[in-house]
């Protein structure tokens, strides 16, 4: 953007120095040279040259007048018309001044000096700037779209994971030899909320009581995972509690499971391209599923 304005200003500087620019051009030039050191230096240099030319024109006009005066005083061969220019009686000094004046007039009214030229140049520069801005916008949109597609392809769970990459362990399958009376009473649900707590209950627990009125017991049997707290509602049959751990050497992004005919069926394990690349012993996958319905078998489908 700055380069386009610099080109425009440099092209308009001769007209600006001559004082023949339009008001719009003057505003653009003065605003720009107040900020751009390069164009300001060029303006100062051109202005100095212009002033030197003005002085030269003045000196030439003065010299012409002196020569004319001397020529008229000394005369030539007694001719009373000596000192007059052959062109309609114009003196050399007047001729010199006229030539300089005509030269300046022509210089100011051709090429860069016309208002029409300024307007046309401004129009062309603005058109170029708009074209470049439009190209930049299109390129930016294409780059953003490409980045979005790349992110989706890299991180969406679109790559199926083979079952031989998965492992299922049933951690808890039979607690029929345990009773809730063996474990301490913990309290009501509202008092026990915790991110690392699993609340165990079923429809039978809430047949005769509202959920908020249920009393929970902290079941810390040795066969349960010790990094998780199990709060079991009064009236729940512990023999129906099943805890399954699913692990893989792949970074699993999504999966599903359902209960079907007393079986817990896992399926649709998916990872992403990034998951395939980053999968290793440190970046693996492990999750636990707690079932309250006493399933008899856990399988992949």
Brief overview, please?
The chain is α+β, with helices and mostly antiparallel strands and 301 residues long.
Describe this structure in words.
There is one protein chain. The protein is an alpha+beta fold and 301 residues long. The protein folds into 2 domains: 136 residues, no CATH class; 142 residues, no CATH class. 43% of the residues lie in helices and 20% in strands. The strands form 3 sheets. Strands 1, 8, 9 and 11 form a 4-stranded mixed β-sheet that branches. The chain has a 4-stranded mixed β-sheet with strand order 3-5-6-4, with no helix packed on it. A hairpin with a 2-residue loop joins strand 8 and strand 9. Helix 1 packs antiparallel against helix 5 and helix 3 runs antiparallel to helix 4. The two termini are 61 Å apart.
Give short descriptive properties of this protein:
301 residues, alpha+beta, four-stranded mixed β-sheet, 6 helices, elongated
Topology (SSEs and partners):
Layout: H1 2-18, H2 23-33, H3 37-74, H4 92-108, H5 115-155, E1 159-160, E2 166-172, E3 185-187, E4 197-200, E5 216-219, E6 229-233, E7 242-248, E8 254-260, E9 263-271, H6 273-278, E10 285-291, E11 297-300
Parallel strand pairs: 4-6, 9-11
Antiparallel strand pairs: 1-9, 2-7, 3-5, 5-6, 7-10, 8-9
Helix pairs in contact: 1-2, 1-3, 1-5, 3-4
